[in-house]
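Input record (one chain):
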Amino acid sequence: MNTNKKSVIQESKTKAAASTFMRLAGLSAALAGLCFIIVGIFHQENVPASVTTATWVNVHIFATLMGFLGLFGMAGVHARQAEKSGWLGLTGYLLFSVWLMFIIPFSFIEAFILPGLATELPAYVAGFLGMFTGIPSAIDLGVLPTLWKLSDPMYLLGPLLFGIATFRAGVLPRWAGGVLILGSTLAPVGALLVSPEYQSLVMIPNGVALGWLGYALLSERREKASESLLEQGDVRMEPSQVA
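The corresponding structure, as predicted from the sequence alone:
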């Protein structure tokens, strides 16, 4: 019946829309992973002298983009494996996503506000950077230091739990989850043992993992989208049936 054919076409369109969302999420996750790697490689030491350099500004622009792209990308990655990753995956996803939400305003301030204040309000710049280095601020920064302290365990636990859930679920590449676990364990080690100017390098494994998951999601949805288009073509070629 025509009604049945319309239902099949509508279902195909819904699948195509879902596939488009997943492809875009995969692309976002892959780009967020690339931003992670760029930030990890080029981030300078958190000292006032770095703030006025072009590298500092560019790195924190990438960090801001990383936050936006990561939020959308992680939504797609989690949705793809939510059924099998369970509460562990959900917890990791939420913690990682909230950390990305925190990164956006902090990185925006570092990219677009701190450079202009470096000469006019050096005490503010030094105090702001002190949040990351543990040096007490000479001025009141309000709630910002508290928010940043809250973000630290989110960055450690979010990728760790999500990596474990990804490895166990087996929906997306297991070893991408393994790399997330590695990145999470390296972060505290790097903070304790690595010189400050090289500590950002521990972000690279998480960037590789996120990019890997994004690429896997993007590639997978491309194949399914092609199959969906073929199905739609088959439906349109069927002769009309009369009740």
